[in-house]
Amino acid sequence: MKTIIKYFIAVLFLCALGCSEDTLDPEITGTITGVVVDEETDEPLAGVVIKTNPTTTTTMTASNGTFTISPIAVDDYSIQAEFDGYTTGFEPASITENNISEVIIELSKNTEDNDPPTVPQLILPEDGAEDLDLEVQFIWDAEDSDGDEITYLLQLRNGLTQEIQDFEVVQDTFFTVSGLTLATNYFWEVTADDLENDPVTSSISEFTTLTQPDNPFFFTKLEDGNNIIYSGNQGSGANPQLNQNILQLTNAENNSFKPRKNATVNKIAYLRNVGGDTHIFTMNLDGTNKQQVTNAIPLGGFRVEELGFTWAQDGGSIYYPYFDKLYRINVDGSSRTLIYTTPDGSLISEIEIPQFNQDLLLLKTNNFQGYNVRIYTYNTITNAEENIILENVPGAALSIDISADGNRILYSRDIDEAENTNYRIFNARLFEHDIALETTIQIGNDVVAGQNDYQCRYSPSEGGVIFTRQENFPSAVPSVYTLQFGQDDNDKQIFEPGFLPDWE
């Protein structure tokens, strides 16, 4: 018995000794941090459920798409990211002792349950529409049941040249295209793309533009260093529409400016630089059939942009200045005739002729600096001056016109009466002189200090004028305005940019 008792005591002692030496080691851990982003946009995704395999703590991404799991036992893991609308993403991570492991998980959108947008339905212009303006608004209809942002591609094909124009439109289901070609059959279609499914395309619709524009206005625009002539309209109603029905008449390769229409022959005369000279050309109202008129003797004088010319009322000839001389030339370039020479050697800058008296000339002359301006009428039958409209007034005068009966004279001059080597004009205003009443009044209410109103012309009814308005610094953008006599709010902007207008 004593032997047995000693044996058990020995066993217990050994067990106690063994237990005292077998202590538990502490768990070895690290940290994992990461960010979850959209695969296409790289935008962080908030609220993404983050799990690990082997399983540890489950967490969610913060508002900036980041997450942290700490502590996490040292091991190799697969980090799983789950988010509604996206496929589940996985990224491996190895956790080492007391270190931070970083992962980036990119999630791609799940398109299995995403429907494509409906096929676009073309609304306007209607299929087969004719005589449309050169500016057309396209309207279509399409929907996306998932609320995805839709990108539309409007494709427009010119039926004559087969040129295709593509216009990308985001979300909106309308788009306006300007600068179309006259008398042209166009084809158009719209493709809708939600960036999740294959794009869907509408049927093809067609329309035809008008053959001849009803554009009563002509003006010039400066584009890429060259002047280009355009025609346009102002729409209907009391409030004109800006840049309505714009049609380009001259090409961008030539410097063409100062259009003047003759209603008798339905032609436009204009100026164009040829080499180092400025010549008169003519063209049809749609810009076709361009013909050079002057050759041996071009226009000449102070500043080519200040030089003016005029049609004879029958449209058979044109009057133009060459320094101190005034010539008349047939529109086919024949029979150039000297009509008048200034007695004092002053330069002729502008010429106008009233509709009902072809023997009466309205002239504007100046010196080589553009000043010492005289505006007067001259009778070619009596070879004498008849009426002096403006003289002995310092400063610049910039444009003239005469009424059909020859009794009213329209002109512009700088009321600051400034004279300088740069020919800078500070406050040009419009004036109308009545020869019978011997009165001169300023016209125009809305012009303010620092603006110039100039390049003025009577309207066809002579119930108003068209003119250019521009700030008085060189880089200012000019605009074309109309003004109706007897109206309180009478200045209406119709083209911008634009200058050297004509209204016939």
UniProtKB/TrEMBL annotation:
Residues 116-214 form the Fibronectin type-III domain. InterPro entries: 6-blade_b-propeller_TolB-like, CarboxyPept-like_regulatory, FN3_dom, FN3_sf, Ig-like_fold. SUPFAM superfamilies: Carboxypeptidase regulatory domain-like, Fibronectin type III, Tricorn protease N-terminal domain. It comes from Patiriisocius marinus. Residues 1-21 form the signal peptide. It comes from the Bacteria. This is Fibronectin type-III domain-containing protein. The lineage of its organism: Bacteria, Pseudomonadati, Bacteroidota, Flavobacteriia, Flavobacteriales. Keywords: Signal.
